[in-house]
Structure formats: structure tokens, C-alpha cells
């Protein structure tokens, strides 16, 4: 009992609330409270930290009204940023890169539309309007906009689950456009409400697992085209696809197989060369269009349909027809459209933002996530009214764009123009393009999504990240696309909660010759301080972990006492909790701290806190009950001062 | 660029990977890596920290086999702990407290059964078998076991939603027992699987809001009995109850109202007296039974049923009949029974554990949460086979038990005996007991659950806890019991995720005369160090916050540079990140750190880390790519050494 009461008696007149001993020779510093704030002020501050961490308006400070107008225009339409300084040299680079990505975008557009069970022409439409809108609104200079594989796959999968694209093609198309519209609304509102951090909840390991699984699912689906099978399962699961493939061997067409695999090998070799030598990026960039041209020529010469090789057939000429009248906001399928919109919206957003950030950091400029979301959202909303389905910045085409030397969003305009030209004049040429070549293009595109090396690295560095990755992978492969995604996000969340629920507590020891106290399990040279048990709590103290922490700290005390008896060392007198990492404390946590202090007091053990951060000391202070228990002389600025002050007091004890 | 390369050149042969400069006069300490562990070892350690934080087997260490057997028996059946030392004096205390709680348990048992829409006798059955089982298995000395209001309310509410207790009483009873069985299974398995921390997820603010809302709902329901209304709504919501009350004014019976409110006032006065003077606890403890006796006598004399006062009527004599044959594990309602079991199971568990812990800490002994869960679970499983519904330790009766001086679980045995005596011989006496008195008893019991003062304290200390509390309160009151609970748990979780998603970053300054660096917003005396920007990150770095942190740190750098230009101070050279509170780092976090380092390098700004904790340095080291970027000389043991070492290097720069 003596410790606390002695101390208080020897110091009857502590006038300032948090003052600490000054009668001792050593200098003890107060733990300061942060300046007082009103409730409104602190709410306002949390609010602005939450929604405006990047302080988007800072550039408007101290500017003339005219300059402010210009800045606002530039802020809303990034095109005003670079347009005034645009020149012929930049334009030349952009034309080259724009044409390069167009050669990719045309075959990929047709293929990805097939992945979403949509008519091939929708893929071209989607490579025309959205890139133009993005060029005006988007802030990334390297993003190549258009349909992407993952979002196409998921949209096709979710819609086909309830509506058959073969039996009810108009309804299916309506739903696709409506889902695209909702995807756009969702994306734009995330950006507008500055909730962009939502996409961060899909962690990279999760995405890698998810994309790997989806790539395998997509590739398996392509076996239909690659083997020339006509009756194929509607399901996505590994098992049902395999059944379909080996159940219908009679439908296998050797002509199709021969053509498909030859071109697949060609495409994969091209991809491999470009991977090994980034300078030869144009080989893999040109490969798909070359394959299409080659295979169409062959198909034309041998009259493919006579040899069991299916071709695309007649495609309508002309630009995007308006489709606003096809949007449907009522009826039984509205919830399906909304759900599909949200899932594809978030997936495509994640891809677009990640691509934008990657290339921005390579070229050392900043992409504003929230603005980017609004741009992508508006682009999709406009797209849904002009016969486009979900689009975003594509990983593969943006990489080609970057490698081809794109300088500004003009490369997207060039690409859109090339697509326009194709739609106006070249559509009849696709009549003989074999379907099998589209399957080969899809496989060669998605194969790059399987990132085996990163998975191995995850296993080495972080087992839990690896687990999340694997769960996403197998979830997508064997359960369903949505479930895989849900499981992976769940595991990532769970990981955060676990860390908060079962935080580390470590014993600190003094590093000889310094005033630092460090983890004894980490620093071999750290030494125990007699009479003291110094613990560091490596987590905020919340309702989810306060009972655990109480038990765990009591166990440390018990173990230390047992050790002391075994080693015949000096008796334990004081427990110091290093609170540096306790960055938050809720009411349950405060109660547990007080309870622990009282329980230890009864055992003549003193409990003192060292180095509480601003909001913890503030909260301790605000709760009269806790403050009474801890008082001013159980809280020190650092462990060193706590040890020095408590041990000088111990000397005065009987 | 010079900083890093200079440093490396001057130190070509750093043999140990994490060695730091030694050519300088100041002493720089290595940041140690914790000792190497195999994957298996680290998984084993995390596992045991997660499931066995209390090291439950420590008492078995170094004991003889016989002693081990005794300890094991004591561990499994806490009765062996105290039974050998039990004596007459303890027994006397236990008899007094046992009879006191029996006088509460009998009227409350009958009332709470009504709350769950069960026959009153089930309430008495439930106060007989479970206390006996708990006395053998339970480790709390003060818990008074029996039916409780919240679990009764929720069970009644959830079951009545699908099955009418009036039209289908047998099915309803079956479902109640089955739900009780599942509650028991759920509770016991939580304990057995050592997942007891699940109950911690219902934080105290959440519970206070929830219980306050439920108390009001319960009280409103009692208006049926209190006003003598016969046709009353089946719903729980505030609005529908009010409609029922004022829609049926013709059914109001003044005799019932007079009797009900008189006794309610009596009970509330008794409660108030006991609250003000804890020594007079027996007044409120005796009040319910006294009210029952008094009102029954009056009712008998005036022949109440003739005066529109409804009475309980005939009750069956005898002990609990077996009910295992009533459990039903198939059919349409199985999922309802399971759901009800889990919800009531977790609610009653939360109450039981909280009560046990509260009184254990008052008397300074430990209650093992996981063991307690198994005891409560087994008690409910056994209860479901002997005509009992969900039971747990009750807040109100345990407080009376404690105040009446209970010493061991024998008080539960005494209570059970008193209930047994009642069931065998006194049942006919309840024939004339008016229903209205049961409503009055329920109201006076639940009114104590409305904890207005704590809610006010929450508002003062912690706005987010207050918000969770209010959402639970209004959710229960206006939406539904389950939704209220869900919303509140959601908010509590969200709070944790928010703290991780938008962590604090603060600028540190040197406290003059010390080697400590502290938050400049908190410590007024802290001073900036020229050339340096020292930031502390107050959270683990995860995928959810790494993009935010990158943006925020870059903003700090930008603002600092602007400030320096404004104040004409010396140019910024180095950014030190204090990692003391960064207790975890995932792969996304590592990538962002490396990216930031590279981006700052390009701007000739050096980024160094100070004081990484064990698992962070380990992870940095394990990832070859990150380690290459940060290398050994960008990581220091503390901020002081980082500042000293970097500034001595700056001097050698051109």
C-alpha cells in the first residue's frame, strides 16, 4: 500500500493537475494535455482529416480571383492543365501510342464483349465514347480506357445467372446498360462523397488471388471456343466446365483446335519476348491485331465455316447508337442490375485507380483518387447512354500505352478515332474472323493476371496476406466469383480486428548506456531494471481487447514474480506501461486500466503509465473517475523518467 | 541524392546487415532483429497467444501426478476448490443470501417467463435445475442463476414473430426448449474452442444503449397487464404499442390500474431506498415477494376476477418434468430455433460473464471466462432437457446475493431448494396472484437497466462510444431488437476500422534538455529540429491506410516546405518517421514505404525510420526488395540517434 500513499503524503500541494515530482534532483517533465478544443472544433477536425486528408483546396489559397477560376477549371477538367502547353512533339508521341493501343483495343474489345455475353460490337462501342470522356476529365496521362477482362467476366457471370443472353438478348442488353449506369453512379458518388478509401479495402494480396482465380475461370471458359464445342455449360465452376469439356468430345473440331492453339502459342511467344525485353513491347502489342488479320485471311481463303470453324459473321456498321431508352429502373431485375453495377463498379474502379497510381508514381506525378473516381463514374454513366458497358483503365493496355511513349490523354483520343474509323469502314472485314482467335486473345491477355511470383513472395513475407490471397483464389475457382471476393475481403478485415483483439505486449529492458527501453525479445543487450516490470502495449486499448490485455498483463506480472522467486532477485515493486503505441483508448479500456491499477495497489504493486499520446491523456483527463485513480503522479513523459522517479521514491520507503 | 550514397561509400564493409555508422563520435545502436523463428514456431506462438493468453495449464507445471489429478478435478469442477474448506459460518451466510435471492427469484421467474410468452411455471423450473448445475461447474461465487429479462424478451420476440404462443402453444414450447438447447451448445462451444473474446465485441456502451432500449420496450409491453387490456398488439415497436394502448381505452380497467400503479410505486420506492443506502438492500430484495403476498391476499379477499383483475390461475404442482422429447431438430422451424438460440445465447452469456467479472473484481478473485462459458452452456443444455428456458447469471439478483453476504455457490443451492419447496407445496397459493403485479415487478426490475448517467458520461468522454450507445438504443426502440444490436456492433467495429483507415500522424519536436521527441501539438515546449521533419505514425500500416498515409505524409512535407519558405528557415533535408506505434506492417504497407522513399529521394529528401518494433523490422528484413531500398542505414533505434547521425552526415556534404 505504502508506495502511492507515501508519495501523495510527501507532496500535498500539487497545484497543477499533471505536475510531477520536483523535489528530486532529477528533472521530471510534465505530460502535457493538448490545447483545449470545443466539441465542434474536434468534430470539425476529425471530419476534415477523414474526408479531406489531401487538403484539395490548398492550391487556391492566396490567389487572385482570376487565377482561382483558372485553377478551378483545371481542377475540374484536367485537360486545361496540359492543353495550353501541348505541342507537335507531344502529339507525335501520342499518335504512335494511340495507334498502338488501338491495335490492341479492337481485338480485345470484341473479345471482352464476348466474355460478358454481349454482341462483339458493344466492345468496340465501349472503346470509343468512354476514352473521349476520360481524355477531358481524367487526371492520369497513361491510362488506356476501355473494357477490361475482370469486369466483363463478372458482369457476364452475374447477369447470366438470372437472364439468358441467348433466349432473351434484349433484356440482357438492357440489364447490362443499366448495370453500367449504376456502376457509374456508384463510382462517381464514391468520388464525390470522398469515400475513395473504400477501394483500398481490396488489398493487393486479395486482388492477386482474385485475379488469378478469375483468369483461370476465364481461360477455362475459352475452351469452348478453342475446342469448337457448341453445347457448353452456363456455369463458371471448375468442375462443371471440366465436365462440359470432356463430356462433349464428339463436338471437338480438329480444325478449330489446330488454328486456336497455333495462334495461342504465337501470342504467348510474343508476350514472352516482350516480358523479357521491355523495349520490344510492340511485339506483344501488335500480336493480337496481326493474329486477327492473319486468321481472318486464312479463314477467308479456306472458307472457314465449311471446315467447322465458327466465325463472327455480320457486324453492323456505324457509330454508337443512343441507349438511354434501354435503361430500366423498375421491374424484377432492378436489384440484379444494382448489385451487378456495384460489384463491377468497385472492381473496375480498383483496377483503374491502381493502374493510374502505378504509372503516376513511375512518372512522378500525383493522381487524385477521388477525382479519378468521379471521372471514371461519369464516363460509365455517359457510356451506359451510348451503348457501352463497364469500362475503366486497363492494366495491359495502359502498360503498352506507357511503353509506347504516351504523353497525355490525347493517346486515348487517337485510339478512339482509330476505333471510330474501324466502326465506320472496316466492320465487313471481320465477317470471316474466326471466334477461336478471340478465345486465344482472351487467354493470352488474362494469363498475365496470374502472378505466381508475388504469391511466393507473400508466403515468405506475410503468412496472413498469403492466406487471404489463396482464399480469394480458391474461392473464385471453386465457389463463385462473388464469394471468393467476399471471403478475401473478410479475411483482410479479420486480420485487422485480430491484431486489435490480441495485441502484442512485450517486456522492455534498458539498453545499456542509453535512456532507451526496448523489447527484450528483440534487443539482446537490453537489461531488466530491478524492482521494475516494464511492459509495452502494442495496440490501442478498446473494448475488444481490454479484457485480454488485463489477463495478459496479470500473467506477465505473475510470471515475473515467479521468475524473481526462482532467480532470488529483488522483489517487484512497480509496473510501468509504455503507452507510446496505445494510440486510442475507449471507455472500456479506461475502466480496465483503473481496475488493474486498483487490483495491483491491493498487492502493493504500483502501476504507472509512460508516454501517453495526446488523445489518450486527454481522455484520461476528461474522465473524472479514471483521473482520480491515476492522478498526476502515475503518468510520466517517458519510461526513463518513470523509472528514475519511482525508484527515488522507493528509497524513502521503510 | 548525395545523402544516402555518401553514407554508403564511407562505409563499404558493413558486415552485419543492420549495423549503423560507427565512424561518428556519437554512439549509434543497431536496430536488432528478433531471434530467427521457423514458420512452425511462429505459427505455434501466435496460436497459443491467440487461444491460450491466460496460459491455463501453468498451475499444472512441476506438480506430482496426484496433485495434478486434484488440480484437474478442481479445474473442471470448481466445487472441489471450496468444498473441502466449507464450514458452518460460510453456510450461515449462504443460507441467508440464498433465501433472499429466492424471494426475488420466485416472483421474477414467473414474470420473466411471461415476458418470453411461456407458462409461468417454466420460470420456476428454470430457477431450480440450472442453479444446481452452476453450483457444481461455475467459478463465480456471487452469480445468482436463473431467467433474465433481456434474454426472455428477445426469445419471446424472436419466436412470436413466426409462431403464435396462443394458437400453437406446444410448438412454441418445443421451439423455446430447442432454442435453449442451441444457446447452450453455442455457449459451451465458444468456451471449449476458447473463442470467449466474441462476447467482448459487445462493448459496454453498446450494451447500455441496447439494454436501455430493451427496458423501455419491455416496460411498454407491460402496459398490457398494467392497464388490464386484453387485446394487445403482438409487435414490439414503440408506435404499434402506443396505438394498442390508446386504441383500446375501452378495455382499461380502473381496478387493475389502481392496484398495478400502487404496487409499482411501492416497488420503485423500495428500489430507490436501497439505491441510496446499500445497507438497506433487503428492502428492495424483499419488496417483490411482499408485493406478491400482499396483492394475492387482497385479490383473494375481494375475489379479484369479479372486479376485472386477471389472476394467474391454476398452476401445476411438482418438479421439472423431463423435456428432452420436446427438442426438435428438424422441420421448418429449425433455423428459427438455431437463430434464436445464438442470439439469446450470446446476450445471456454477455450478461453472465460481465456479472461474474464485476463481482470477482470486487472480491479480488479471478473468473475464467472460457470456463464460465462452458459452465453456462452445459447448464442451458441440461436445462433444455428439464423444462427450463435460457438462464444465466442475473445482474439484479447477483447484486442482492453479493449484498446479502453470499460466500460460495451454495447460495444458489439454497435458492434452488427454496424454489423446489415452492413448486412442491406452495403452487396453489398463486391462484389468486393478479397478473398486474407481475407487470409491476418486471417494470421495477428493468427500469434499473436504463443507465442515464453512464450515457451522459459517455458523451463527455467519448463521442463515438456515445453514438454507438444511442444507435443501439434507438435501433431497439424503433426498428427491432436484432437490428438495434447489429447496428451497434457495426458501429463499434467501424470505429476500429476507421481508426486504422485514418490514423493520426503528428509532428514531433525535441523537448529541450532531453533526448525525447514528442507531439508538438501536445507539448508546447517541444522545438522543431532544423533540416528535419519528424513524424510519428500512430497506427499499424495496412492496405486500408497505406495510400492515405502516403498522401498525408506528402502533405506534411509540402506544408513544411511552404512554412520554411515563408519563415525563411533552413531547407528541409530529412524526414524521420517514428515507427514506435506502427505495430504491424503488411505487404502493401511495405510497398508504400519503399515508394515514398524513392519519391523523396528524387527530391533530394532523405527518409529514415526510427524505432521499428520487432515484427516490423523482421518483415522489412524478410522482403528483399524493401530491405534494398531502406538498407541498414535508413533505420535507427530512436529519433535522437537518427537526428544525430543524419545531421553529422549532412555536415560532410558539399
Layout of SSEs?
Two copies of one chain form a homodimer.
Chain A: H1 2-10, H2 39-51, H3 65-76, H4 79-82, H5 88-115, H6 120-125, H7 129-137, E1 145-146, H8 149-160, H9 169-192, H10 204-221, H11 223-227, H12 238-247, H13 254-276, H14 281-302, H15 334-363, H16 369-384, E2 392-393, H17 395-403, H18 410-426, H19 435-446, H20 452-461, H21 463-479, H22 481-501, E3 505-510, E4 517-519, E5 532-537, H23 546-567, E6 574-578, H24 587-602, E7 606-610, H25 614-622, H26 624-630, E8 635-636, H27 639-651
Parallel strand pairs in A: 5-6, 6-7, 7-8
Antiparallel strand pairs in A: 1-2, 3-4, 3-5
Helix pairs in contact in A: 5-14, 5-17, 5-18, 5-19, 7-16, 7-18, 8-15, 9-15, 9-16, 10-19, 10-20, 10-21, 10-22, 13-14, 13-19, 15-16, 15-17, 20-21, 21-22, 23-24, 24-26
